[in-house]
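Narrative progress, year one. The postdoctoral researcher (J.K.) led the effort to move from monomer predictions toward full complexes, under supervision of the PI. The following entry was the first complex the group processed end to end, covering 856 residues in total.
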Amino acid sequence: MLQAWRGLARGVALGAVLALVLAGLDFFDAWYTGWWGVGAPILAGAFVGVLYGLTRQVSTAALADSIDRRAQLQNRVATATEDHHEQFAEAQRADALARLEGLKPARVYPVKFTRWHTGSVALSLAAVAVVLLGNTPMLLSAQERQDREELKKTGQAIERVAKPVLERPDEDSTKVAKELAQKYDAFGKDLQRGRMPMEKAMEEANKLAAEAERATKEQADRAEMIVSKAQDALLREAFEDAARESGMNPDDLANLSAAEMQALSQLSESEAASRESSLNEQMADLAKQLREGKNEKGETLTQAERDALAKEMEALKKNLQDLKLSQKAREFLNRLMKDPDYKELMKIAQELRKASQNAQQNPDRPPLTKEQIEEMSKKLEELAERLKNDEDLKAFIEELKKALKEGQGQCDSGGMCMGLGGLLPMWGSGGPGQDQFFRDIGQVPQNEQEEDIQAKPDVKAVKGQRQETGDETYMEIKGPASIGDRSKTPYFKVMPKYRKQAEEALNKEQIPKEHQKRVRDYFDSLNRGKP
Amino acid sequence: MSAAWFRETFDGIRNELGKVIVGQDEIVDGVLMGLAANGHVLLEGMPGLGKTLLVRSLSQVLHLSFSRIQFTPDLMPADVTGTNVLSGGQFEFRRGPIFAHLVLADEINRATPKTQSAMLEAMQERSVTVGGHRHTLEEPFLVMATQNPIEQEGTYPLPEAQLDRFFLKLLVPSPSRAELAEIVTRTTGSLEAELAPVADRDAVLKMRQVVREVAVAEPVLQYALSYVLGTQPESEEAAPVAQRYLRYGSSPRGAQALITAGKIVALRAERFNVAKEDIKRVAKATLRHRIGLNFEAEADGITPDAVIEQLIEHVERRDRDPLPV
């Protein structure tokens, strides 16, 4: 037991040293150490120390020597435990036994609080103190305290959003969405600790936003691809039917684009006949020229001209062949174009394609709303119900539905549909009185043409008086906002107007006095970029 | 024959000597230790401190023969060992003063090395060879040699090899005021103490036998060896003080002396085993004449006893509880 007691002290001391190191790293923000970071090494050290003490083998000689020392038995026990053959050996053993009989183990090995124990307690307390010191707001400046509070709030908000995605069953969300949600969850927890510097938090947020954007784009591309496949399959099925009826090669039909099909379906009987007649005339004329070896002007044809005419002849033959689609085929196409199912599918595909393009062009905007997706999903279900006979088509539609569902999974929590990246705009919008925002700010290009204006992030902290209650530190926002549509108008075209309005407001004291300087500074800073 | 008998006999002799020897407990104990251990004793001290009286009294108490040899530069080996003389047409060996149970070699460092050597050879071999005949010295045989630490003029300091043959080296201190007063009172008064024999030759031989029966545990043996190795400057276990101040350290005889002396101390404590405390107690007496100080030690005024004190501290520091809690 004493060995265990000793092992406990040493184990705790070693664990406390490790805890102290972790606490030190935490103090200098090199590593985040919670209470587990202090407690776990100490507890583990204690366990290992006790285990080592209990299992450690002690030799008889060592024990005897130790007892002799502690009980001041003048090496009687050590001598008695050895194999001596002197005349006094027996007497010596008897003497040693007699001395041992009067001994109490607790007196020989009292449970003492040794230097190791003191040291282990001191080190443990030091580790706790360092963690406390690193987390106490007393040592922080007002700005740092405010930063921490802000980060905590944002962290809580992020965690609230990421949690439902994590708790959802696996089949209801994609692996990418789950991974992203996990990252957001961890990020939220880090923020809640309030130990992350503001700049670093922003860097992390930007990274995650970029990742979310990537995921959203991939999602949109995939949805578009699935729609395209479904469309192709539906058409293929229809063309095969049409080809069977008209005697055409289904591949020829399949190669027609949607616009060509549309045009073809709207072709009237008379137009078709007239066009056929014209084609026949052209072909007869070409055949004549080839046969006689002379052109319309009577000039002899060169070999190159002959080849060109032959090619033209082939093309005309093909056109004529196309025109010879049976009336049934045209009727089929006509029926297909008017078919409500086909129209519905085309509409969904169009919406999805538009949403995908929108997501790629403007990642800050949601490609589809939750309601839109729900509606599309419902329509697809109905369509699938009506197309019960076609297994392949039904499978495609199911896949499309799934793709939509995945898109929806990234949209529901927080009401924004650009994946988890949609969480980012909520940063800094925690409620009234919120003084810090995270936006892209920087130089605005002075483009004369209408185009998307890109901005380089340039964040800086500004200290000033923002509220009547006193000093407050906040982040200055200069540059295009990341929420809403991107501006397509160069700022200097509208700035004089806005500046005038601002100056009027300043003159009329519509802007509080303590904020007037900020307004002037803002317009001055915009002026700097203009030649 | 037991530890108790040993103690009683030892204390009996000691108490009887106490009738005439005032103080000097350590010296008396040391001499008796040498007697019990079958080892010779070197006494170093000023003249007139009762060395001769001690040996003479011891012979009376033990009923043993005693002789005193005053060593002088002109003393010849034959004057110590004896010589063959022509008597009745035949050579007859006439024994020298060495043929006694207790021999006091007074101021041994005044004799020439040749005479010293003859004396020390007899001490070691327990016999003398004269005219081709070997003459054995009767046991118990104990030589107590004295040296004057002050007078170095005209002396022949004992070489290291010779010093090593002494079991113990005892420093005879000057008496304290109280002891001096007692000495003066006893020696100038009308009452003269009479010593009675409390033991005999056989008892001394038995005591030597008993000493050998005391067990020594391995930790104690290792502890004793740490002292010896600690004195050797070239040893890996040399104490820092030995490395700094010693030219040479103890020989294996030092280890033997430590253990044997430790056994006697244990028996006196009615113990059947040697304890580390016993070793520590006899360390100075057994080692001080077995270590050689270097020039630096002489220059710093370091004495052998100071070196041994530091050696004890060194060994104690390294001797730790194998199960510290």
